[in-house]
Design goal:
Blueprint lengths: L1 E8 L4 H12 L4 E7 L4 E6 L6 H12 L5 E3 L12 H20 L6 E2 L2 E2 L1 H12 L5 H15 L6 H28 L2 H24 L14 H9 L8 H8 L6 H13 L2 H25 L9 H26 L10
Antiparallel strand pairs: 1-3, 1-4, 2-3, 5-6
Length: 339
């Protein structure tokens, strides 16, 4: 048994830590894999025979490539692809203008005072579903599907997974909203929680731009052990495993999900909380369903840099907008916009 340390290329947040550890721990030769977000590395202990470290890194990279990660002996220097902004900026601005026009027409509710509207929750869900940090959910459903496909069961597990995910986000979102009512956070508590949501969205957006590596350390997530327990369910072949797995994704370490959960706490209403989280989950459904049925991997596409930078700019817009509206609602600043 020997221990090797490899640098992980493509790691962004704790969800990536969960995914890389889970996939590598399933490799027969490996007895233990421990990933580090701070160092963007993974420490692997196992029996690889007479293989050289370069050979081991290549073999393990093949395991992680479907999820957008590769291993190397030396740390690769981070290069910010500023050229992607040439397309990302106009696309993001066009999307934001369209969204504001729809809001002005009353088709979607962007932000009302300090509240996150259902339109906002849906769009954030769409962005979250294609974020590299949500690759843990995609990797989860693909791995589960592979296990059931061996038995010739391809469609039912997918359907159960998405039903479980939508139901859990609706019901547990409502529970969080009701919990907020029980605790009655008050105006100060609501301000603090809404402020946290805005800051989390700003951090998530900056991370999606992939130009400031230091920002990845700021991203809040749930304890990684929760994600590991959830990800471990994929190896079970029980009939109800896909349903349970879909329900469990509510607890996965995703910053987007957590920002919505924090906001839901401020609603103080089971129905409002359920609708906010349910709408968010509906936003994630199209891409996750496409991923589960067709093995889509947006992070592997040539245009992924432009896509993620565009998504990052839109999320930053939501973060700034929420921050401004929170400050306006508390009287700290005067309204800057008429919507």
């Amino acid at each position: 048994m020997k221990t090797y340390t490899f640098h992980v290329n493509g790691m962004h947040c704790k969800a990536c830590v969960v995914l890389t550890e889970s996939e590598l721990n399933n490799v027969p030769e490996i007895s233990k894999a421990k990933s580090s977000l701070e160092n963007h590395s993974v420490e692997v202990t196992g029996d690889f025979g007479d293989k050289e470290p370069e050979h081991i890194a290549r073999d393990l990279s093949e395991v992680l490539k479907p999820h957008g990660y590769t291993l190397s002996l030396e740390k690769q220097k981070h290069f910010a692809k500023w050229s992607d902004f040439k397309l990302a900026f106009p696309i993001a601005i066009g999307f934001i203008i369209l969204f504001i026009i729809l809001q002005k027409l009353g088709i979607v509710n962007l932000v009302t005072t300090s509240e996150v509207g259902y339109g906002t929750a849906f769009v954030i869900g769409m962005i979250a579903s294609v974020s590299t940090c949500m690759a843990v959910v995609g990797g989860l459903v693909l791995s589960m599907s592979a296990n059931f496909a061996k038995k010739g069961d391809k469609v039912r597990p997918q359907v159960l997974f998405h039903i479980g995910r939508l139901a859990s986000f609706f019901i547990l979102g409502g529970a969080i909203g009701a919990l907020g009512l029980a605790f009655q956070p008050g105006s100060t508590g609501t301000f603090v929680l809404s402020f946290i949501v805005a800051i989390v969205l700003l951090i998530l957006g900056i991370n999606l731009l992939d130009v400031f590596p230091w920002a990845k350390k700021l991203q809040p997530t749930m304890p990684s052990f929760i994600g590991k327990r959830v990800h471990g369910l994929k190896n079970m072949n029980h009939t109800l495993t896909p349903l349970l797995l879909g329900i469990a994704t509510f607890f996965l370490p995703c910053g987007f999900t957590q920002s919505m959960q924090i906001y839901t706490l401020t609603t103080g209403s089971f129905l409002s909380g359920a609708l906010i989280m349910g709408t968010f989950a509906l936003g994630t459904l199209p891409v996750l369903a496409l991923l589960s049925f067709s093995s889509l991997g947006i992070h592997k596409k040539a245009q992924s840099g432009v896509f993620f930078k565009t998504a990052g700019l839109v999320v930053i817009f939501f973060g700034i907008f929420n921050l401004i509206n929170v400050l306006v609602a508390t009287g700290i600043i005067l309204p800057l916009f008429s919507f």
